[in-house]
Design a protein that fits this description.
mainly alpha; two-stranded antiparallel ribbon; two-stranded antiparallel sheet
Amino acid sequence: MPAPLPEAGAICRQCALCCNGVLFVDVKLQAGENPAHFEKLGIRVSPAKGRCGPSILQSCPALKGNLCGIYKERPGYCRAFDCSVLKRVQGGGLSESAAVKLIRVARTKAEEVKRLLLEAGDHDESCPLSIRFKKLMRLAGKAPLSKEQAQTYAELTTAMHGLNVLLSTEFYPGEHHET
């Protein structure tokens, strides 16, 4: 008899990449979700812009360690999202130990990107990684860089690319190969 599949929480509690600004820039509130409700919970909601409705910028302020501090009241988008790693574990196509290994690799790569962002002068740790990276690269194009700065930017670009490849091939929903 096959082993029972782990519940989502067993994987998610080790990950939180969908909440900490690594996988997503923001969480769009769904029709009918009242921004004031989330603001009462201590979550800053960005107002609607153009065709985009109100959203919660990641890293989610409700994230406490790897746990959601508003889990029972979390936005609909958060309720509906399951990453590809979780789906494959639940479907039996990926073992829990392999999933944990992927999560550790992704978290390590994200920490390397964060370290390099800090080294390059970006200290806004409340902002999603991809936005921090884009801002820093725009700044880099506006002024000459020393040899050391250029090396840091090169390492950062390589690290960000490696993280994005891992996220796109393993974590985002879609077609995936067995790991």
